[in-house]
Amino acid sequence: MQWQIISRLQYSPTGLPLTWELTQPPRYVCVDGYDWTWPRGARFNGCSSPRPVWWYRPPLDGTWFDYDWFHHDMLSRCWRLLELRPSYVQDVFRRGLIAHGMRPYRARMKQIFTWPFVALMSPGDGLTGDERYDQSVWGGLSLPEWVRENYPAGPVPYDPTA
């Protein structure tokens, strides 16, 4: 399965250090075959690209990899709410990078560098404990409330006829 973009990823800096906010809700089908939409106003921090390597590869640079970084950031925050395993989040990240043209060994290295964040530091409940990211999103809901409302049974398989 390849990525399919239904509505583009649009974001802007928040004015806070190293954070971006969605200006429009993106919708896409990821390499896992699930249909994903995230709320306008959701903030993310590029945790999928370790900060020590930002001089070489910034987390958001206008390429197709932006979708992989963003998707990984959001899944890293919400994996428990979506009833996903942390290893699944990492596998989808690696497969997405490869699907967008990254060499497999580099994608594996990025997967290894980001593994501690997902496995050890992210509770997966949608909240980070940092006010820069834990704000209300579209409709005044918090990200966990939005995820529970829009994905009550976990990720939704893509249906082109719907």
Structure description:
With 162 residues, this protein is of the alpha+beta class. The chain has one domain (4-157). The chain has helices at residues 65-78, 86-99, 104-121, 143-150; strands spanning 4-7, 10-13, 20-24, 27-29, 34-37, 43-44, 156-157. Helix 1 (65-78) packs antiparallel against helix 2 (86-99) and helix 2 runs antiparallel to helix 3. The longest helix has 18 residues, at 104-121. The protein is globular, with a radius of gyration of 15 Å.
Instruction: Give the uncertain stretches in residue-range form.
Output: none
Overall mean pLDDT stands at 83
In one word, what is the shape? globular
- Radius of gyration over C-alpha positions, nearest whole angstrom: 15 Å
Task: Summarize it.
By secondary structure, this protein is of the alpha+beta class.
Q: What characteristics describe this protein?
A:
4 helices, 4-stranded antiparallel beta sheet, alpha+beta, 3-stranded antiparallel beta sheet, 7 strands, 33% helix, 162 residues, globular
